[in-house]
Amino acid sequence: MTDxxxxxxxxxxxxxxxxxxxxxxxxxxxxxRAEITHKPRKFNPPMPKHYYYxxxxxxxxxxxxISLYPFFWLIIMSLQDVDIGGGEWIGLKNYTKLxxxxxxxxxxxxxxxxxxxxLGLQVGLGVTLAVVVNSSKYEKYLVTALLMPMMMxxxxxxxxxxxxxxxxxxxxxxxxxxxxxxxxxxxxxxADTAMYAIVLVDVWxxxxxxxxxxxxxxxxxxxxxxxxxxxDGASPLRNFFAIILPNLYPVLLIAVLLRFMDNFRxxxxxxxxxxxxxxxxxxxxxxxxxxxAFKFFKLGRGAAIALTLLIVTILLxxxxxxxxxxxxxxxx
Amino acid sequence: xxxxxxxSYDTPLSRALSIFGTVFVAFYLVWTLLPFVVMxxxxxxxxxxxxxxxxxxxxxxxxxxxxxxxxLKHYTTLFTENSFGTYIMNSLIAAxxxxxxxxxxxxLAAYSLSxxxxxxxxxxxxxxxxxxxxxxxxxxxxxxxxxRSLDLVGTLPGxxxxxxxFNLPFAIWMLKGFFDNVPYAIEEAQMVDGATRFEAFRSIxxxxxxGIGAFVVLCVLFAWNDFxxxxxxxxxxxxxxxxxxxxxxxxxxxxxxxxxxAGVVTTAPMMLLGLVIRKYLVAGLTMGAVKE
Amino acid sequence: MFHKPKNAQVSRVSRxxxxxxxxxxxxxxxxxxxxxxxxxxxxxxxxQAASSDDAKWKQxxxxxxxxxxxxxxxxxxIRDNIKAFYDLTGIEVEILTDDxxxxxxxxxxxxxSGKSDYVLNYIQDKPIGAPFADFYVDLSxxxxxxxxxxxxxxxxDDAWFDNFLSACGRFYSEDKIIALPYDAAIAVTFYRQDLFxxxxxxxxxEYGYRLEYNENSTWKNVLDIATFFKKLKEGGAxxxxxxxxxxxxxxxxxxxxxxxxxxxxxRWTDFNMDDxxxxxxxxxxxxxxxxxxxxxEKFKALADVSHPDNLANGTLELNTVYQSGNxxxxxxxxxxxxxxxxxxxxVAAGGKTAYAPCPKGEASWILNGGQAVNGTNCGxxxxxxxxxxxxxxxxxxxxxxxxxxxxxxxxxxxxGLGGTPTRKSVLDIPEVQAAKSRPSxxxxxxxxxxxxxxxxxxxNFVLGPKITEANEYHSLIASETQRMLSGEMSxxxxxxxxxxxxxxxxxx
Lengths: 332, 292, 508
Hints:
CATH architecture of the domain at 96-325 in chain A: Orthogonal Bundle
Largest sheet of chain A: none
Structural class of chain C: alpha/beta
Distance between the termini of chain A: 34 Å
Order of helices and strands of chain A: HHHHHHHHHHHHHHH
Largest sheet of chain C: 7 strands, mixed
Structural class of chain A: mainly alpha
Oligomer: heterotrimer
Strand content of chain C: 5-15%
Number of strands of chain C: 7
CATH class of the largest domain in chain C: Alpha Beta
CATH topology of the largest domain in chain C: D-Maltodextrin-Binding Protein, domain 2
Shape of chain C: globular
Number of strands of chain A: 0
Largest interface: A-B, 141 and 136 residues
Number of helices of chain A: 15
Number of domains of chain C: 3
CATH superfamily of the domain at 96-325 in chain A: MetI-like
Number of helices of chain C: 22
């Protein structure tokens, strides 16, 4: 699961690219770096490597303990039939059966739809907000206000929105109904709209993340380019698409990947809001997995589903690490 | 450095855009903050009052939202009929404990990873971060088995360890970036002056202290807001606030008033913490990929 | 790692198996737990048949037990009263309460892994009992044990309301009793008497009979009532909807909601098996037959004239809709009467609500030649003992099981938080008799005639299907019915798809 040999460069190189220009390393940089690094190397005492390994050991041990064991357990379980009572080796049957399981396939499709909708809206709204906020004199206050939803526990957010969506006394429902967007049925009560309901909650909670990431990216848009373009008489819109957006692209990619993986990881608010219903309208794969493992107690099938999910997560993770490696901020 | 100084040419288009921008932000702020207002105000309402809605389409009727006699009973219920005092402590201990443990072990590991090179280091590093990316649902059953065999289920130490599964890799990953930023030459200089290796390590701690502090807070935030681990591994002896809040949905009665009050109790401290470490939020929430 | 428990030695067996499966990783796990589960300790002193009752109750003084229960009123009330049990026995019982799905998860993991962290379990009949029946102690062994105290009313079928013992205690065999009835939720019709009276003239003009509801009212009448109110409402009148279904996200109650109507018509059940004890091999399902398709059509027709939030409202939310005056009628569990009669939370309180049995089958909708009955179903929560626990722990737990289901405790719960008794003798208490009519000190008692003296009796009572795959079965029914109700699938396709999936599930 950890083959990253294709990644180029030593981690020191990667890290130095990644973590340059950190606001909080001011203290460090206050020391004339050149002067220090020019100290003759012959004074360096040799550093035995094992000394570092000792320091590393406890953390690695803890992680190994809580991640390798579950991983092997999943593989073993996925090859067994552990529906009721004892396990029985059944080879790859759990996997082959998945491909005829409509709920599994629907789960992937819904997960993809859900993620695309969430991310599309979040990036659209987030970037627009960032651009507007960036040129506002109240930036600090605005950002503070915008950040709030991220601080709420997703389970609590789910409950709050359940209250707001309620068809009998929910304020949000009332607003949507009064605005003529919904008829009298609650947004959660129809297979056509329930997906939008959970997307909206995710958008509400996580658009701010995209906003602050985009804001950070905007600060690094090279000023000379903008100025040059302005002098050429480019409109603000042109400026946005020609210069700002390309510069934002790398940070946005990171944000999108992170959010995408979080969609795999967190289903708290969906469990609270719809539990995957109505019908299977919001049964994205992690929700189905939750059902299989914790409601049906089909641990073998659950493990097989979990592994497919893990593999995709790891692939996305590798992609993310690759993006991390690239210098950000374009030509900045 | 900010690009905003640049945009100074006043054209009809840019003026239109700026008006659009203002309106957009205003709407967005309303949509983002209104749920908080509803939560906060509803936590002071009696159930039947909380259920009052104006007639559909009667926008002026919205004032009915503020038409109620405030009561503190939902808050007092939380602490008298439910043990929210205990749950707050549980949340604090579990989140705080895991944050401190993660940052201590994490900084040791991060420091060494930053200072030493060996074959397979990249693989190790990727493995560390991948443990944080694993879907919680996928690994919950085997984790439960481990925790159970160590008698950690339903205990605070168990929950602390559970939170460490995601906080430790986070801490290692983030803090390695910090240590990478501190020139090795500083330690060298110390050692040349006769300091031991440990003293040398200590000497650079002040340089990374603000960052470490921020990541303790972020770890607290992640752990505090967790639901699945707390529900499956913690609850019983170590019920935390999100789980306790969820449990107010009872088979015969959804106690909306109490749920809103519990929501306020759960969310408010994290909002304050979020403000305190705002500067580090971007770096923290993007796994260090983006800095402000 | 998960295996069938055999006896009290299980925890050792399970460790070995755990190591076998876990391989290298598991060797790091350190020492396992002792035979007694998490948070439980056991102390015992020997007693004989001739010992005093007090000595028998006290034989496990100093022990600690854990009871994992659903967060329902009886458990809260018993937790408040737990000192009485301590005084009687010297045993400390910790009662953990969670949402039913969480209880299900925790109990499942505990039982499956051969542990006994939760010595006492709340065994909700199908969600917990059906999949895990084999993991619980056969209580009938202890019923006659003279070294244990026994309840004066006994534990026979006659001691409980009709069918209760079978519902939560018997799974796949007549011989074993794995749980004693601890609480009950029985479906019954709640309707707004005041509104029915107010609109009866208009209704009669249109439908030719009075707007009334009683045990002879059929599902077709319900459809008429719902249609009538909906039309009135769409005409601009300030009236609630007529009816609403339980089609929200909790699969089990969704299945129960449709089961009532299916059973009312010709006593249709999902499988041809003994409905009361169920079967591990239920055989092919009856879904897809003519009767089931017609029922789905009628169910859809009813949904179309019901409250528009059908698909979002689980049982609990539905009750809130009723409490807030937005429906005129609901088929609801009788335990909700207390909340409906509470003037602080309900506009339907104060004599506006009347209670009657579930609707009857409509003769013209019966295609299978069966009988029209008032199909009534339930959730009977039992209390049972984890068979992974050592014998002494099981015996100590038995003390709590019989105490918590005794007549006096049930009466206390009913008086306090609004419980739902399971012992017949509770109904004989004069105060309970008096509470069956208004003004009632125990509002749940207002439903007792419709429930205990009618609904739960044969031929109205339906339980099934008790099958090991009950939870996945519920989930399939819920999602397919919901898809039908949202117009994605026709009733015939839904029935066919259900047949396909359910037979696949049961390996037919």
